[in-house]
């Protein structure tokens, strides 16, 4: 099994698992990852996803032994994974436990909240083999770190250490190596008890903001807020506040 799936309390943990190849991606892995995300989406008890890698790396990008010449064919599969991650109506946390290179780096950047071990690094490795950042890289990078840094990362393909990635705003947080999984699991557990529909709507609005005018975004916020305000979790959130107690969100409509 190259993708391991574990059911945790309220969330799924998905682990890329080809540790002897630093979890380099194959077409089969792309399919397994997509299936695991689809199963998480279909499970009403699942309210968050935590993705990580087995062994000392997170993911070394496309497997360069398998790559062949049908790059466009492979990308159809990987792009489906990125689209699913962004559309998933629950938060996706990525625990980058070691090097994240090429498509592996951009797979991490497609997640909602990225934690990384301090020893981990992000490498837009594509330039080293004559490719361009793909799997969303050319979209994520300038939005996260700005044009100058995006160009530097894409053209120089140098490792960006986790702590600098945090300073640059590429990721949420760099964490001591021995605390990474503890921190990621605590975050996943916390988000699994959050108002899931509200978070999903916020995720949708933030993605739409990348191409909307302020005018269109204000309209979208109005509409999505109307939807959020019809959820049971909104009613519970207000009630809990007024009753001075912690809310018990269910994530249901
Ligand atoms: O088809 C498409 O859709 C195209 C899409 C392309 C998207 C891409 O991802 S292109 C970029 C592909 N990835 C890379 O170019 C990164 C290649 N790997 C590296 O540069 C280095 O391995 C790392 C910097 C990531 C880590 O270096 P290090 O020194 O920590 O580890 P290592 O010794 O290089 O790797 C450990 C083993 O994993 C090694 O095998 P061995 O010698 O012990 O038998 C190495 O060959 C293997 N490995 C690492 N990366 C890949 C890989 N095997 C296959 N494919 C890899 N990408």
Q: Would you report the number of β strands?
A: 10
CATH class of the largest domain: Alpha Beta
The class by helix and strand makeup works out as alpha/beta
State the distance separating the first and last CA atoms.
35 Å
Largest sheet: 6 strands, mixed
User: What small molecules does this complex bind?
Assistant: ligand T3D
Are there runs of 5+ residues with pLDDT below 50, and where? none
**Any idea how many domains?**
2
Portion of residues within helices: 40-55%
Lateral strand order in the biggest sheet: 1-2-3-5-7-10
- The ordered H/E elements are EEHEEHEEHEEHHEHEHHHH
Number of helices: 10
Query: What's the CATH topology name of the largest domain?
Result: 2-enoyl-CoA Hydratase, Chain A, domain 1
CATH architecture of the largest domain: Alpha-Beta Complex
Strand-residue proportion:
15-25%
Mean pLDDT: 97
Radius of gyration: 18 Å
Full CATH superfamily name of the largest domain:
2-enoyl-CoA Hydratase, Chain A, domain 1
> What is the overall shape?
globular
């Amino acid at each position: 099994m190259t993708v391991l799936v574990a059911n945790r309390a309220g969330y799924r943990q998905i682990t890329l698992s080809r540790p002897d190849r630093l979890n380099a991606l194959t077409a089969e892995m792309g399919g397994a990852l997509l299936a695991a995300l689809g199963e998480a989406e279909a499970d009403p008890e699942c309210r968050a996803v935590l993705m990580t890698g087995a062994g000392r790396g997170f993911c070394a990008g496309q497997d360069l032994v398998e790559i062949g010449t049908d790059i466009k064919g492979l990308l159809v599969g990987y792009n489906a994974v990125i689209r699913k991650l962004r559309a998933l109506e629950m938060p996706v946390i990525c625990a980058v436990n070691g090097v994240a290179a090429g498509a592996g780096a951009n797979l991490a950047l497609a997640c909602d909240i990225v934690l990384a071990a301090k020893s981990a690094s992000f490498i837009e490795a594509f330039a080293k083999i004559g490719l361009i950042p793909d799997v969303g890289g050319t979209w994520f990078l300038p939005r996260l770190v700005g044009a100058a840094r995006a160009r530097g990362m894409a053209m120089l393909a140098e490792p960006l250490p986790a702590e600098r990635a945090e300073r640059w705003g590429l990721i949420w947080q760099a964490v001591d190596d021995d605390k990474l999984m503890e921190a990621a699991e605590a975050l996943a557990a916390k988000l699994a008890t959050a108002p899931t529909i509200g978070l999903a709507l916020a995720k949708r609005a933030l993605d739409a903001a990348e191409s909307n005018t302020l005018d269109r975004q204000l309209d979208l916020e109005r509409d999505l807020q109307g939807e959020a305000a019809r959820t049971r979790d909104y009613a519970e959130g207000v009630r809990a506040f007024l009753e001075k107690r912690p809310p018990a969100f269910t994530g249901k409509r």
